[in-house]
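Sample A.
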Amino acid sequence: VKGLTGNTFPLVSGSRSSKTFKPKKNIPEGSHQYELLKHAEATLGSGNLRQAVMLPEGEDLNEWIAVNTVDFFNQINMLYGTITEFCTEASCPVMSAGPRYEYHWADGTNIKKPIKCSAPKYIDYLMTWVQDQLDDETLFPSKIGVPFPKNFMSVAKTILKRLFRVYAHIYHQHFDSVMRLQEEAHLNTSFKHFIFFVQEFNLIDRRELAPLQELIEKLGSKDR
């Protein structure tokens, strides 16, 4: 799988399926969005995540949200890819985030009525759906001067709300595997960056964040 900056990440294909999600939405080098991504990476390197998520001066909010949404998709894709062999129909027959939260899948077009399905199936639906949105030039224009659609912000909010559910599932159901793989620092940093970003622009309703509320408060208090 190619990351945004062209780095190649190995994706572990679980025994359940050899299908891995391959984000095709590489941001082209030399484009303005690529420059924005480089800016994001440079500020992330400073270690101040609250500052790193802020809209750079003079930049378009939609474009900033688009670049970061693509980046979070690639990060989550990679993180989930490391634990797919532990997330199976048998181990995760429902898509849950702890005992109190269960998610049913609907995309509004192919599946209108929410269906109960296993976590790997749900995440497969979810990541394929997100990738289709990211690949749609009318929603995520990559060419300079092509305007973002009027509904862009609501599309981005739905994508981020759903991507959060993958983090929530990994933390609640697979954190022991993450620790065995020594991936917890990577997961925590990625999630902290994600949370600070959605908080900065008020992109996910607080109720949706409830499955990881304690963790979110802990991450926030460390940064004050």
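Sample B, a different protein:
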Amino acid sequence: KSANPQWREQFDFHYFSDRKDMLDIEVWRKDNKKHEELLGTCHVNITALPTKQTNCLELPLEKHPGSLLMLIAVAPCTGVSISDLCVCPLGDPSERQQISQRYCIKNSFRDIKDIGFLQVKVLKAVDLMAADFSGKSDPFCVLELGNDMLQTHTVYKNLNPEWNKVFTFPIKDIHDVLEVTVFDEDGDKPPDFLGKVAIPLLSV
């Protein structure tokens, strides 16, 4: 019930500098669970923004009244990685020792924001639901932690896909929940949901 909403949400996107990406933003109005209406869209050219500073942008909504006020910072990303299973970042014993020392009790207050990090090995899925008429699916896996999101590649025409990827996330809140969702890629259409599991960090 507001024409001037304040969300105060922060989202982290992992952007690779060799790509020329646009940030697409949509504003929606929701009357109830069934009725939604698009209130406007706007776009930000990420490559045109100055790096290592916070950019305050007022973005007018295209073909609709109103504007969005956003703070966007393009900064070097630390602690986030995607790698193959054979080059797992924690595979080296000396690196493990450095990590153990970095997060030992005596170093707890050196950097309050550096809580730690989570490493997830996504191996495979088994007996997925068939989403295509052919009796197969084109599954990929999405991992979300807080507002961080990473995903695997798609394995086509397979109900038992093997991804064998290692994902590393920096932890910002020990009460966060790791959500792992499997989708079926469906060309230009939105992906179909195949299943989900939620793992609280405190249970690890």
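Observation for Sample B: The chain has a mean pLDDT of 86.
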